[in-house]
Amino acid sequence: ALAAADAAIRESSKEQMLSARKLRVYMLCETGEGEKALEECRSLVKEYNYGSDLREARLALSRTYQTLGRHEESEAELERILEIYADDATVNNDLGYALADRNKDLDRAEKLIRKAIDLDRKERASGTALDVDAGEDNAAFVDSLGWVLFRRGKLEEARTELEKAARLKQGEDPVIWDHLGDVYYRLKQTEKARESWAKALKMYEMGVRTPTDPRAKDIRDKLRAVAP
Description:
With about 230 residues, the protein is an all-alpha fold. About 75% of the residues lie in helices and about 0% in strands.
């Protein structure tokens, strides 16, 4: 896969080069070479230092920091983007989710995520969003909302949002099902929790996300804890 990414870079036009190099960053992260991915991202930030290209480079850097568990640096990159692109739905969501995932500044996290959903709906309604169904919310954003509500102890509201996320076209994601399992467990619906975690784990094993993602191990631990 990394060889394919390198080939894409060699064959890319100037206009395609940033996307090709971001693909290489993603593949480096997937293969456990996070430090190399970080070096590549830093080069991207220096080379693509203006406008929307800089946004893309910083977003790649933020996500690489996140992969490496360097959460404060990841959030700092998102804050930098947000200073320029305050109405960027993806960045609002990513920062809100990052804060919620660390149980940090939950009031702001929820506001950022709700803003992301609102911005995304407006983009869909106006036809400016690409490759989307105008009548359907972004499953990742709805998942973020469910997760911050869970963190705030609003379990029924969290369940509603996460069940909605799981029903959306993009809802076949192990992160969503893992979150839903956590909510069911806190609601003392142990069988539903077990089913949700089992589905999430199967998705990891099928490669829907990286099978070596540490969250997959966490799910295995949770399944062992609730084994009949």
